[in-house]
């Protein structure tokens, strides 16, 4: 076979999400011939995020893009809200470092950002074809040789599967087993447009500052998951994330969209979105299984990156995926660049990808936090403890008609020996994160 | 291109009062030639399908009077939840053809 046949690309990337576009941008920047196949109408058309990207881990991989990237607001206020049925407590963290450049994280809308990033990759020379789903992999003698898309045979030295959380491509390549629902959550989100001035006043923001607020407790009816709110420039991203298995529990039996509606109807939320207009409703599955649920990351002629590889992580205080997607796309690109220099695209050569990921924050994080999902999947954290904390708050703040009970006995009332013992156990449990 | 029906004119508080159908009506969908998710023949009464009724963010699954689970694919957000819950055994599931299905503008 002629190695440089006309239809032979250096790399075919399946999916124009953050992993695919980061890989395309990096490869094209080094002069490699890259084809990105995207099934949506345009890059970003099928992509959903809760709403926040952390730049520190990936800033230097793409030094030229951040200055002009269409991000929403830099997050200067980190908030967490604990809810039970009737009450809530919100903690807001303000730190000077969050309000100092370079900012650590930004709210983001993928429709805007992905389309823009695709343009940057095209400027570097990548070819991006939308409306083009990949139907099959071309596998010869166990090696991935390219893809079939729209009846056309397209060949490449390496295929990078960046086709998202369900990754049919990685499955076809035999790199992963059918997925188990317990390793996934589903996110439901509304983008709610709201007047910029009203938004800034309502959230106490100056200029382009932004808020990220996570919710726990009754927001998911006590099921494993939580809520989120991010301020964009002129809209809010509001939604919930729930473990898929938790949603199928019999008690309390509640449909996913109803959970989101209940959340929106909470007085704490209703007043934040008042006067706003929902402009989009979206939903997406999120891989949360971590290291234990990961498939193989490479094979002969193929690499897997982003959600397709399971690179998304929930550790309670932060839920992250996009940095892992962009970094894995970057490392996949570096691997292909090295492989091309050696003209070796075998599994052995492409194993450099895992080595790169291992020495980076990507797999280091997944190793460090491999117990976090199992640790967080503990029902009392989503029902009993929010209720307990809020009952104590209620009593602390209440001034009855008669004399007020001293503070220590007020708290002590809730702290039986068994309660304290179970809190110690929870503390120990949390030490695994 | 098929745009959603849009907001109800008389719905003053636009974000709060939205029903699921109206919410899906805000999204941009492009028509597909065929249904991209099908319940496999003979599996309609499988208990596991009932879970899809609970998990589907677009509320596309329901039970008919014969006790069979049915799906109406219009409004599918392509999130993948039903596939993870029900698996290949019960569902014929593939993405819509190129350029079809939901097209997120904000995402």
Number of strands of chain B: 6
Shape of chain A: globular
CATH architecture of the domain at 34-101 in chain B: 2-Layer Sandwich
What portion of residues of chain B is helical? Answer: 10-25%
Number of helices of chain B: 3
Strand order of the largest sheet of chain B: 1-6
The Rg value of chain A, from CA coordinates, equals 24 Å
Most extensive chain-chain interface: A-B, 60 and 43 residues
CATH class of the domain at 34-101 in chain B: Alpha Beta
Q: Please report the first level of CATH classification, the CATH class of the largest domain in chain A.
A: Alpha Beta
Q: Spell out the CATH superfamily of the largest domain in chain A.
A: FAD/NAD(P)-binding domain
Query: How does CATH name the architecture of the largest domain in chain A?
Result: 3-Layer(bba) Sandwich
Low-confidence stretches of chain A: 1-5
Strand content of chain B: 15-25%
Distance between the termini of chain A: 52 Å
Mean pLDDT over the residues of chain B: 88
Overall geometry of chain B comes to: globular
Q: CATH topology of the largest domain in chain A, anyone?
A: FAD/NAD(P)-binding domain
Task: Quickly describe the structure.
By secondary structure, chain A is of the alpha/beta class. Chain A is 32% helix and 26% strand.
Structure description:
Chain A is of the alpha/beta class and 433 residues long. Chain A is globular, with a radius of gyration of 24 Å. Chain B is an alpha+beta fold and 107 residues long. Chain B has a domain of 68 residues: Alpha-Beta Plaits (2-Layer Sandwich), CATH 3.30.70. Chain B is built from three helices and six strands. In chain B, the strands form three sheets. In chain B, strands 1-6 form a two-stranded antiparallel ribbon. Chain B has a two-stranded antiparallel sheet with strand order 2-5. In chain B, strands 3-4 form a two-stranded antiparallel sheet. In chain B, β3 and β4 form a beta hairpin.
């Amino acid at each position: 076979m002629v190695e440089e046949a006309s239809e032979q690309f250096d790399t075919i990337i399946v999916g124009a999400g953050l992993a695919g576009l980061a890989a395309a941008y990096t490869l094209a920047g080094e002069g490699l011939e890259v084809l990105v196949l995207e099934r949506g109408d345009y890059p970003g058309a099928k992509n959903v995020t809760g709403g926040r990207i952390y730049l520190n881990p990936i800033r230097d991989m793409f030094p030229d893009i951040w200055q002009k990237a269409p991000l929403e607001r830099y997050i200067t206020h980190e908030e967490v809200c604990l809810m039970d049925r009737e009450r809530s407590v919100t903690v807001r963290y303000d730190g000077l470092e969050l309000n100092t450049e370079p900012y650590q994280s930004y709210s983001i809308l993928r429709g805007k950002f992905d389309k823009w990033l695709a343009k940057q990759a095209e400027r570097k020379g990548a070819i991006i074809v939308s409306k083009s789903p990949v139907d099959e992999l071309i596998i010869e003698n166990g090696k991935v040789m390219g893809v079939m898309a729209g009846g056309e045979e397209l060949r490449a030295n390496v295929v990078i599967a960046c086709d998202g959380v369900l990754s049919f491509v990685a499955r076809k390549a035999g790199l992963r087993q059918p997925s188990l629902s317990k390793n996934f959550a589903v996110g439901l989100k509304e983008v709610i447009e709201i007047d910029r001035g009203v938004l800034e006043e309502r959230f106490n923001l100056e200029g382009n500052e932004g808020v990220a607020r996570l919710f726990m407790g009754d927001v998911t009816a006590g099921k494993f998951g939580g809520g989120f709110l991010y301020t964009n420039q002129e809209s809010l991203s509001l939604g919930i994330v729930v473990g898929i298995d938790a949603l199928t529990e019999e008690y309390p039996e509640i449909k996913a969209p109803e959970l989101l509606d209940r959340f929106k109807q909470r007085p704490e939320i209703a007043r934040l979105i008042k006067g706003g207009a929902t402009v989009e409703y979206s939903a997406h599955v999120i891989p949360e299984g971590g290291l234990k649920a990961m498939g193989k990351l490479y094979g002969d002629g193929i690499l897997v990156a982003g959600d397709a590889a399971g690179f998304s992580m929930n550790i309670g205080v932060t839920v992250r995926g996009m940095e892992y997607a962009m970094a894995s796309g970057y490392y996949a690109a570096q691997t292909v660049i090295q492989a091309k220099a050696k003209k070796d695209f075998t599994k052995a050569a492409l194993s450099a990808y895992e080595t790169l990921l291992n020495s980076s924050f990507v797999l280091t994080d997944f190793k460090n936090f491999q117990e976090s999902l199992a640790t967080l999947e503990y029902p009392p954290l989503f029902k009993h403890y929010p209720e307990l904390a809020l009952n104590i708050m209620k009593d602390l703040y209440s001034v009855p008609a008669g004399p007020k009970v001293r503070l220590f006995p007020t708290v002590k009332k809730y702290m039986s020996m068994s309660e304290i013992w179970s809190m110690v156990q929870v503390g120990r449990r949390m030490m695994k994160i | 291109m098929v745009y959603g029906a849009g907001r109800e004119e008389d719905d003053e508080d636009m974000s709060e009062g939205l029903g699921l159908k109206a919410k899906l009506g805000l999204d941009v969908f492009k028509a597909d030639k065929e249904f991209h998710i099908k319940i496999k023949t003979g599996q309609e009464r499988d208990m596991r399908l009932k879970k899809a009724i609970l998990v589907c963010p677009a509320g596309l699954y329901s039970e008919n009077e014969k006790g069979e689970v049915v799906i109406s694919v219009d409004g599918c957000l392509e999130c993948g939840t039903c596939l993870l819950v029900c698996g290949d055994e019960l569902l014929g599931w593939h993405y819509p053809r190129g350029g079809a299905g939901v097209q997120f503008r904000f995402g």
